[in-house]
Amino acid sequence: MPMSNQGIGRILGHGSAGDAVASPSPARIGPNAVIQTGQALSALYGVGAARLIFESAGLGRHLEAPPTSMVDEHEPVALFAAIRAMLPPAEADRVLAEAGYRTAHYILDHRIPPLARKILPKLHPAIASRLLVSAIARHAWTFAGSGVFRGRVMDWTKPRVRLEIVGNPLATPGCPWHGAVFQRLFGTLCGSAATARHLECCASGQNRCVTELLCTGT
C-alpha cells in the first residue's frame, strides 16, 4: 500500500511540507560543524595542533567544552578559515572532508530515525534519494545557516541528486566538508553514490554552491 506524505514524514521524523522550520536569526549552524572538525584535527594532527587552530579562530573554549546547541554561523566560518590559513590546501581539504564524514556519521547515528535507516536503503534509489532530499531540505538551516538550500533529483533510472546552497556561508574551495556530508548520507541511505561533483562554488566568486551525486543502487 503506498504511503502518504504524512506517513513518509513520520518515518523520516518530520511532518508535512507545511511544517518546514525557518532559519532563526541570527543564522545558526549545527554544533557538529565545530565538534567534528575538532575531532578530525585531533585525529589527523594531534590535540596540540587542533588547539592551536581553534585558538587562532577564537574558539579555544569549544575544544575544551564542545558546544551542545546550535552555534552562530560565524564560528564554523572562522574555524574553516583558520584551517585553510594554517594548513596547505590539500591538507586543509583533507581535514574538512574528514570532519564532514564524521558529521554525516553522527547524523546517521543520532538524527535519522531507526525506521528510516532500515527502510530507505531497501527502496529504489530514485525514491530513496527524493525522500532524503525532502528530509534534508526541512533541516537545511542547520548546515546552510543564512544560505538558501535547494535540492532536487533528476531522472528515475539513474537518479542524479542536485543540491544547491545560495550564499553558502561555510563555502571553501570545492566545499569538501559539504561534499563529504552529502556523499556519506546518500551513499548510506540511497545506495552507492558516486564521488560528489562540486560544479559551482561561492568560494570561487559564484553566488551558489552546487553539488551533484549519482545514486546507482547496490
UniProtKB/TrEMBL annotation:
Q: SUPFAM superfamilies given for it?
A: Ligand-binding domain in the NO signalling and Golgi transport
**Key word Oxidoreductase present:** yes
A Gene Ontology molecular-function term?
oxidoreductase activity
TM ranges: none
Which EC main class describes this enzyme?
Answer: oxidoreductase
Question: What biological processes does GO assign it?
Answer: bacteriochlorophyll biosynthetic process; photosynthesis
Query: E.C. number, please?
Result: 1.-.-.-
Return the InterPro entries for the record.
Answer: BchJ, NO_sig/Golgi_transp_ligand-bd
Entry superkingdom: Bacteria
**Keywords of the record:** Oxidoreductase
Report what the protein is called.
Answer: Divinyl protochlorophyllide a 8-vinyl-reductase
